[in-house]
Amino acid sequence: MLDWNKINTVLLDMDGTLLDLNFDNHFWLEFIPECYALKNQLTITQATDILLPLFKSMEGKLEWYCLDYWSGILNLDIAGLKAEISGLINVLPHVTEFLNALKVTDKKVFLVTNAHRNSLSIKMEKPCLQPFFDEIICSHDYAFAKEHQEFWQAFQNQHGWNKQTTLMVDDSLAVLQSAKTFGAGSRYFCESLFWASQPKQAAKT
């Protein structure tokens, strides 16, 4: 169990941490190949063979998360296509209960995401999570993804959170390693079981 009395700031990832990754997996691995195949008169297999290496080459880079980048590369309206199937966006179990418990504490709660602002607006509107956060931090605003030290330095410089009293929850080991290198205090790899342990001790101190 965490000692919530020693935590002043909570940094929460969005995709795979608060939101089910099924939406993004379906979007990038099934829906986009279908759309790309239709537009370019290809089979879905041919489209997938073209797209997967492109996606792989951008992993960990800001471009991987940038809808404008992929719209240009693929000649598709990526934001529009995301909105088209936004009904598939789902909050993971126990997330709302966890956020409600945090809301009644004195802890600063940030959503810290690599998601593009256009994607963020779609996802925040659907499950209505925005009111739970003191601020929403998008890595695109700093021109570096969370996998890079430059992001953490810029984020910390702007907001001044204490590294040693900060809890970070993320589903990416690469991001957690980057935060560890920067010196952030408590780090948690997000698993569904984590949400079963709500901050019962997270009362005002």
Question: How would you describe the overall organization of this protein?
Answer:
- With 205 residues, the chain is of the alpha/beta class.
- It has 2 domains: 4-20 and 91-196, HAD superfamily/HAD-like (Rossmann fold), CATH 3.40.50; 22-87, no CATH class.
- 42% of the residues lie in helices and 11% in strands.
- The chain has 8 helices and 5 strands.
- The two termini are 18 Å apart.
* Overall pLDDT confidence: 88
Instruction: Note the beta-strand portion.
Output: 5-15%
Question: Low-confidence parts, pLDDT < 50 over ≥5 residues?
Answer: 191-205
Which class of the largest domain in CATH terms? Alpha Beta
**N→C terminal distance:** 18 Å
User: Mind summarizing the main beta sheet?
Assistant: 5 strands, parallel
Percent of residues in helices comes to 40-55%
Helix count, DSSP H or I runs of 4 or more residues: 8
Element-level helix/strand string? EHHHHHEHEHEHE
CATH topology of the largest domain: Rossmann fold
In total, the number of strands is: 5
Radius of gyration (Å):
18 Å
CATH superfamily of the largest domain: HAD superfamily/HAD-like
- The domain count comes to 2
CATH architecture type of the largest domain: 3-Layer(aba) Sandwich
Query: What is the spatial order of strands in the main beta sheet?
Result: 3-2-1-4-5
Shape descriptor reads globular
Quickly describe the structure.
The chain is α/β, with parallel strands linked by helices and 205 residues long.
Key phrases:
5-stranded parallel sheet, Rossmann fold, disordered C terminus, alpha/beta, 42% helix, 205 residues
How is this fold's topology laid out?
Layout: E1 9-12, H1 22-40, H2 44-57, H3 67-74, H4 78-84, H5 95-103, E2 108-113, H6 117-125, E3 135-138, H7 149-159, E4 166-170, H8 173-182, E5 186-189
Helix pairs in contact: 1-2
